Amino acid sequence: MIFQLRSLLCILLLALLCNCNNADDTKQKELELKEKELALKEKELEQKEQTSAVVLTPPEASVSKTATKGTNPLSDIENLIGNWFVPHAATTNIKFMRDGRFEFNDYNENLAKDELLTGTFKLENGNLSLLYDDRPKQNFKFYQGDKGDDNFYIRKGSYYFVKGENGG
């Protein structure tokens, strides 16, 4: 009788331990699944933020290279698309592309070497935002000359860019 009682007690104890392990495994699997869902949602959010950051005129709408009537020339990306350089330092230059991306060849004084910076851009009323792929964004001033000077310029601190002749 004692042997049967011991056997029954052992079986109950074993069943209880197995049940606890299964519950822990189930909880662990649920936790891993929720972490994966969260990671996917974060990726989707990042992609939405990147695509919403680019303000472009659709290719079919940008027929000419000049600002259309009623469009602020300081918001018209057609005035920005092309190659821009710093006079007397042509290795420092930016290329703005129709797909909303840019390539900025710059000299990094801290590293003492040239570097290529890439990202997307946004142009609104003369405020040019460079949204870098690997660092915080930078804002530049995009403006047009005055007193008969119809050229456009980009400026921020010591940076002063002019558009190249074949910059379209």
Order of helices and strands: HEEEEEEEE
Our count of helices gives: 1
Number of strands: 8
Shape: rod-shaped
Q: By helix and strand content, what is the structural category?
A: alpha+beta
The parts where pLDDT drops under 50 for at least 5 residues are 54-68
The share of residues in helices is 25-40%
Summarize the entry for a quick read:
By secondary structure, the protein is of the alpha+beta class.
Verbal overview:
The N and C termini lie far apart (97 Å). This protein is of the alpha+beta class and 168 residues long. The chain is 31% helix and 33% strand. A hairpin with a 7-residue loop joins strand 6 (138-144) and strand 7 (152-156). The protein has two domains: 1-53; 59-163, Lipocalin (Beta Barrel).
